[in-house]
Write a structure and sequence with these properties.
18-stranded antiparallel β-barrel, 19 strands, globular
Length: 384
Amino acid sequence: MFKKFLPFLLLFPHAVMAEFNYRVQNSNFTISQPSEFPHANKSYLYNYDRLRFLGDYSEDGFLFTLIGDGINYLGNGYVSSSSFEALQLQKSDTPFNTQSSFYNYEGGSAYAKLYRVYAGYEDEQNRVILGLQNITMGVGRIWTPTNLFNPKNSYALESDEIFGVAALAYTRYLSETSHVMVVASQKSNNTFKYGARYKTFLDFADFAIDVVSSNDTKMLGYEVEGNLADTGIELRSEGAYIKSTLKTTTNREEEREFYQAIIGADYGFVNGVTVVFEALYSSQKFSYEESILNLDSEVFSNLTYAKLSTGITLSYSLNLFLDASLLYIESFGDKNSRFISPNLTYTLNDFNSLTLGAMLYDGESSSEFAQSGNSYYFKWILSF
């Protein structure tokens, strides 16, 4: 179905180029990173550059968005490593290719990627979007167990950089405080995944019910989000009951049932410090081997190593130009371990920002994060 609409989506902006707004952003990372494979005892220093084109059109309710990337890796050691081979195998779960083949050259590799492309219509009561897009479910800041379309990955270098889904999404606004959303997305094997969400405000909080269904997975979830009286504290929770067919370490497939939920709170202090707390509970935990076997599963992001994890983020504007943030996650498995990600961002002007950051792992042997090595990076974002 989406193959038929793709030419339309690509040609649409040419017909309205006079109203087409665009901008260009270049994100450049210099990264020191260990091998992603445990016990490899290797590290790499390389450069990752993403040149992104963002274009959008909107008039009389009609809208169109196109986001495309040109991506380059420079660093002979990394490009020839097993870690890079694994990266090349990552594909979007869509019925059409969203990225080109990798072009390898001396010391580097490059490719092009279609990040988002969708068109639609919106008025006061309706919103319909067709194309490669992001489907939003859940209220979590660190984890989103109900989102089986575009789950957040807080352990990644860029947690919000996730593959889009090829979908038709329709939202009906029932009132100022309630709406219904239905989604049909097509996967790479041409089967469909369906989702629905009903959200409304009831006296003191927003409530939502989420449903997702595909050939391999069924999910029923909830969302709650509201303010704690007049304290300024925002409370939230979401949970999901999931039934999914997963591969096992004995080369079989079996249906697994489990429940996951988060509770969280946000608070902004008058001195500019913002605190976000979140706790994730899972009725089942999964081994590293099980996660690797199910990399292509719809519930891969839900395959947690521990039944309980907690996370906290702190952010503070030191001055008009300098911002600091910290993400700390503690995994309460058989042996505790932790993930720590601090960063410092200097905004030079409206077009340039510089970030110095790290992703640090600590824990006892055989714990969740003990098998990962520390990474360090310098990021420069140029917008024009």
